[in-house]
Design goal:
With 538 residues, this protein is mostly helical. It has two domains: 345 residues, no CATH class; 182 residues, no CATH class. Helix content is 72%, strand content 1%. A two-stranded antiparallel ribbon has the order 1-2. Helix 2 packs antiparallel against helix 3, helix 2 packs parallel to helix 8 and helix 16 packs across helix 21.
Length: 538
């Protein structure tokens, strides 16, 4: 319950702060203006990082014990917030940016005592402070800048960091590292709140405030995990956990130096730029980077207890494979590269197919309604609070459906989503439902719904509901929950409920965005569910 509460508070605070910050961004001159190096075409507020930092700091302050490490961490985030906001408004010289990063790192190193003291190939004895402290400072400043420099596409830095946090939380859970796990959930909540506005095409950017905050946080958590919480983990793991941003940054800087340029010179040689130049669409480039980052993280989990030589060889093999593949497929003189644009066109050949979209929507509408109504009919007992809630929602929903054109201000989702959650929760508790609809059958039905949903998304002609890299993150996190469920690491009775609700929320959202008539199989089914739940009160 603590993890969920901390995640939810961070998400809500971040989502609540972003709209007013977007409104004052122009007045504060915190806008990202397009130029020849940037990919967006209009001025976009880059103030989302402030909302993320505040959204994370509040639950950290409320739920984590106020020891030296947490206090130092919050103080370091305050320093990054001040310098980051200053940079987002004034475009600071890189030396001033480094000053802010060094101050934040020194706080966590000397006050929070987060250091890299166990080195690879050096045994388990800690190395002297004169060696461990400089290495820690260089590593944390490097990771902070790596994520900062990788923030070049909508949802890229946030998504990559989210994947890293999920892996850190998993490894922390194995060692009972509750403090790190809660911190990961809090930061993840702030990221999800930000991604609500940052998925392509983004309405807000995180700016240097947000990217430095994410890089610094992942660096600190990876060191604390491997050096303090679970010293049995291989000390090379932080390289995997910070993953692709560090590889990309080091490669780009080395290339600039080899060409006689400043390593901090701005250009279009980052990995995401190269993927775009190969013909990939925006969301395809982001998805490729997500998948590559996931490969680094999966390797970290699989090799977490292996020897130093095995781990470092695996790391360099992944680095070589990632960079080598992109460089090999990169268009250059005498070699056109792989024409990804053709592949993309073949993948989306179904776009515009009205017949597929129409029938998929009809099956989804009636399928969800039948699934929920049949399950609700088999309920033998409904808690009083849910019955009362259904009694309150039912008349409001009927009024909303009857006068739909006049009551658009009343969100249909706020009425339908709780109804779905009530029904799914009760169905998973009811033995009669479990006997007639075993888990395998219910999983099969949900998979069918997902396939139909993807068909509708791929054949849509407008932008009402398009696939985004954020959907990959949801799938990845759902898969992570499934792994934890199989390992018995979380309360097993709640996992199927959560996954079912997530899938049905996605399906319901898609149905509602494509509804041409307010009364249809889906809405009638939702009304029927509310009636059945309400009758249990009498």
């Amino acid at each position: 319950m603590l993890l969920f509460s901390a995640f939810l508070v961070a998400l809500v605070v971040t989502m609540t702060l972003i709209p007013p910050l977007m409104r004052v961004a122009q007045r504060l001159s915190v806008l990202d203006v397009p130029n020849e190096r940037k990919l967006h075409t209009g001025a976009v507020p880059r103030i989302g990082g402030m909302a993320m930092v505040v959204g994370a700091c509040i639950p950290i302050f409320l739920w984590l014990p106020h020891g030296d490490r947490v206090t130092a961490f919050l103080s370091a985030l305050l320093v990054l917030l001040i310098f980051g906001a200053w940079d987002d408004r004034r475009e600071l010289d890189y030396r001033l940016k480094f000053l802010g990063q060094f101050l934040a790192v020194l706080l966590i190193v000397f006050w929070g005592e987060v250091t890299i003291s166990v080195f690879p190939f050096a045994g388990m004895d800690p190395v002297p402070a004169w060696l461990s402290i400089p290495v820690t400072v260089v590593f944390l400043v490097g990771v902070t800048n790596a994520v900062n420099l990788s923030d070049g596409l909508d949802g890229l830095a946030a998504g990559v960091t989210l994947l890293s946090l999920g892996t850190i939380a998993f490894l922390a859970n194995l060692a009972n590292g509750d403090e790190i796990m809660v911190t990961c959930f809090i930061i993840a909540g702030a990221i999800f709140g930000f991604l609500r506005y940052n998925t392509y095409p983004a309405r807000i950017f995180m700016g240097d405030t947000g990217s430095q905050f994410l890089g610094f946080t992942v660096g600190v958590l990876s060191i604390a995990l491997t050096q303090q919480v679970n010293t049995a983990l291989n000390p090379w793991l932080p390289l995997f956990l910070v993953g692709l941003p560090m590889v990309d940054t080091l490669f780009v800087m080395a290339k600039r130096i080899s060409e006689g340029r400043s390593p901090f010179a701005a250009d279009r040689t980052h990995m995401h730029h190269r993927l775009l130049s190969m013909g990939l669409a925006h969301y395809e480039a982001v998805s490729v980077i997500y998948i590559t980052q996931a490969a680094f993280l999966l390797t970290a989990v699989l090799l977490r207890y292996h020897g130093d030589l095995v781990v470092i060889l695996a790391y360099f093999a992944l680095v070589g494979l990632s960079l080598g593949t992109i460089l090999l497929l990169q268009p250059r003189r005498g070699w056109p590269g792989l024409k990804w644009g053709r592949l993309t066109r073949h993948v989306v050949r179904l776009d515009g197919s009205d017949t597929i979209q129409r029938w998929s929507l009809r099956i989804m509408q009636c399928g969800v309604a039948i699934y929920l109504v049949s399950g609700t009919l088999m309920l033998t007992r409904v808690p009083v609070d849910i019955s009362v809630s259904a009694l309150i929602i039912l008349p409001i929903l009927l009024v909303r459906l009857r006068w739909a054109s006049r009551l658009r201000v009343l969100s249909l989702r706020l009425l339908i989503f709780p109804t779905i959650a009530f029904a799914v929760y009760l169905m998973h508790r009811e033995q009669a439902v479990t006997e007639l609809m075993p888990p395998a059958l219910r999983i099969g039905l949900l998979v069918v719904m997902l396939v139909l949903m993807l068909l509708v998304i791929r054949t849509t002609k407008d932008q009402t509901f398009q696939t985004t890299p954020t959907d990959l993150l949801v799938i990845a996190l759902a898969g992570g929950v499934g792994v934890l469920y199989q390992q018995g690491m979380i309360e097993v009775s709640q996992v199927p409920v959560v996954l079912s609700i997530v899938v049905l929320f996605y399906v319901a959202e898609l149905i509602m965005r494509h509804m041409k008539r307010i009364w249809n199989c889906f809405t009638v089914g939702i009304v029927a569910v509310l009636v059945l739940l309400s009758l249990q009160f009498f």
